[in-house]
Design a protein that fits this description.
- This protein is an alpha/beta fold.
- It has one domain: Vaccinia Virus protein VP39 (Rossmann fold), CATH 3.40.50.150.
- It has 9 helices and 7 strands.
- Helix 1 crosses helix 8 and helix 2 packs parallel to helix 3.
- The longest helix has 19 residues.
- It is globular.
């Protein structure tokens, strides 16, 4: 069982991994190419990944970033992408080639890998989904050779997010207000200071921690909603009864369309970029 869905009462609940579907997986493959993939490219540059290295991409999604990394590691290197969502791994598998492999797996189940198996471990747009972070960080340290690098690019929060404003207004209305959003529908972001504290505790020297801003203009209200549905692998509005979700979605779309009448729908987000070196 994935640790984010475990029955351990001491573990904060994570998002459900059983709500993804083929349409959302396809949407994610297209949508992530214009935002998350770009952030991932910056992370790869910061990690200075080079030919011949062995890289583990945790939470690889549909494999775009792992493919980009494999272009750097070349024929003498090896890149493994793991993700807990089988439908996304199915899409990623079409990108596999010698030196680039994909498997279903997650950050809480890395015991199958030997100590010092990799030169680099990276997580792009993944870390904020993990409710418990200490265990995975220690495992990343175990998997890396001495001097190996860990790279994390994760959401710190939004400065401007029209979708969130629309969702808050709609969910405050009846009958949606009757259903409280569970903790499992939320993310678990970290701050710069959190990274400065957690990396050394897990066995890493902090090489760099910085915050970068990213801006994305949504083509339409529908585009904004589909982005959130695909990025949350079905957890968007999942706390509502099935018969209420379509109505809530329609109202959120109308709210966004009203907001778009006065200007583009822009998402302005801060990301924490952290690089740690295995001591």
């Amino acid at each position: 069982m994935n640790a984010t869905e475990a029955d351990d009462p001491g573990l904060a609940p994570g998002p459900s991994l059983s709500l993804d579907d083929a349409a959302q997986a396809r949407d994610y493959d297209q949508i992530s190419a214009t935002w998350q993939f770009v952030a991932g490219q910056f992370l790869v540059d910061e990690l200075a990944i080079k030919a011949g290295e062995r890289v583990l991409d945790v939470g690889c999604g549909t494999g775009l970033l792992a493919q980009y990394i494999a272009n750097r590691t070349g024929a003498s290197g090896y890149v493994l992408g793991i993700d807990p969502l089988p439908l996304r791994i199915d899409i990623a598998a079409a990108r596999a080639r010698p030196g680039l492999e994909f498997r279903v797996g997650d950050a809480y189940e890395l015991g199958c890998f030997a100590d010092g198996s990799f030169d680099v471990v990276c997580l792009n747009a993944v870390f904020h989904w993990l409710p418990e972070k200490t265990g995975p960080l220690r495992e990343f340290a175990r998997l890396l050779q001495s001097g190996g690098r860990l790279g994390i690019s994760t959401g710190l929060g939004h400065r401007e997010w029209p979708l969130r404003e629309a969702v808050v207004r709609v969910l405050a209305q009846a009958p949606f207000a009757e259903y409280a959003m569970p903790p499992s529908a939320k993310t678990y972001p970290v701050t710069e200071q959190d990274m400065h504290d957690m990396l050394p505790a897990a066995g890493f020297a902090v090489a760099r921690v910085q915050v970068r801003q990213s801006v994305r203009e949504m083509a339409s209200a529908e585009d904004s909603i589909r982005h959130s549905e695909a990025s949350s692998f079905g957890n968007f509005l999942s706390h509502l009864p099935a018969e209420s979700r379509a109505a809530a979605r329609d109202l959120i779309k109308r709210e966004l369309e009203s907001m778009a009448a006065s200007g583009p729908l822009r998402e302005v987000r801060d990301r924490v970029i952290a690089i740690g070196v295995r001591q």
